[in-house]
Design brief:
Elements (H helix, E strand, L loop, with lengths): L1 E5 L7 H10 L4 E7 L18 E3 L5 E3 L3 H12 L6 E7 L7 H4 L1 H11 L4 E6 L7 H17 L7 E6 L8 E5 L4 E2 L6 E4 L5 E4 L6 E3 L5 H6 L2 E7 L9 H11 L9
Parallel strand pairs: 1-2, 1-5, 2-4, 5-6, 6-7, 8-13
Antiparallel strand pairs: 3-4, 7-13, 9-12, 10-11
Length: 257
């Protein structure tokens, strides 16, 4: 099995180091990750500046760009082989609910899925890397089992792992995304040069954390596995908008205007 491994915390982050070690026990793993922390970069691509690839002493390659940049250039020019799976993480905080829209960890995996490759994003729920080796052990087992019996087509999973010892992790649950309340207010202050600065406020608390959500699963000690899709179409509303637009854009009657 051949795996492209990325993250958004940077190539030196403990999460990607631990996951590389765990995956390398059964697969060929190529690390191509950001040079520095690129959290909350989502699917952003660098289109107006060159990207450079460097190699660290441990063999990891790193890019002066976003997580999506890393996967994109890996698949379109850097690698001379096609991965069986794109894996992203392990992230140093959970990516649940609305977080997935902003997450660079998920963005890297999404880039793999857009290229037609099965992809998984892994995150730990709490910051600090507590029980990281246990999370990496679980992640590696999931990747190995999916690689042995892969579902058909390209798919994307968002996996959130509680910071618990391996034997205390409860059975994985397949979940939907929860929702958060609106983010806290931006922090406003003056810069040393007299300009007003704005710092993005902290994420809001969970608003929809009911049974079946990712928030609910991890709160009970379960690993949350959420299937995601790149198709953001509101399919349920297509009929409504088609009818509404037909009325809105209908030709005006004679004598109008």
């Amino acid at each position: 099995m051949r795996i492209l491994l990325c993250n958004d915390d940077g190539y030196q982050a403990p999460g990607i180091v631990a996951l590389h070690e765990a995956l390398s026990a059964f697969a060929h793993v190529e690390v191509i990750a950001p040079e520095s922390n690129n959290s909350a970069k989502s699917n952003a691509l660098t289109l107006h500046a060159p990207l450079y690839v460097s190699t660290a002493p441990n063999g990891f390659r790193f890019v002066n760009g976003t997580p999506a940049d890393c996967v994109h250039i890996a698949l379109t020019g850097l690698l001379d082989w096609r991965p069986d799976m794109v894996v992203s993480g392990i992230n140093d905080i959970g990516n649940m609910g609305d977080d997935t829209l902003y997450s660079g960890t998920v963005g890297a995996a999404m880039e793999g899925c857009l290229a037609g490759i099965p992809s998984i994003a892994f995150s730990q729920i709490e910051r600090g890397w507590r029980h990281l080796d246990d999370a990496a052990r679980f992640a590696a087992q999931l990747v190995q089992r999916l690689g042995a019996q892969p579902p058909t087509g390209a798919w994307l999973l968002n996996v959130n792992i509680p910071n618990l010892p391996f034997d205390e992790l409860k059975a994985p649950r397949v979940t939907r995304l929860g929702r958060r309340h609106t983010a806290q207010e931006a922090k406003v202050m003056d810069s040393p040069h007299g300009r007003t600065m704005y710092w993005i406020g902290a994420a809001g608390a969970a608003a929809d954390a009911g049974e079946g959500t990712d928030f609910h699963a991890v709160a009970a000690g379960h690993v949350s596995i959420t299937p995601l899709t790149a198709d953001m179409t509101d399919h349920a509303a297509l009929g409504y908008w088609s009818q509404g637009m037909a009325r809105l854009l209908a030709p005006q009657g004679a004598g109008q205007g």
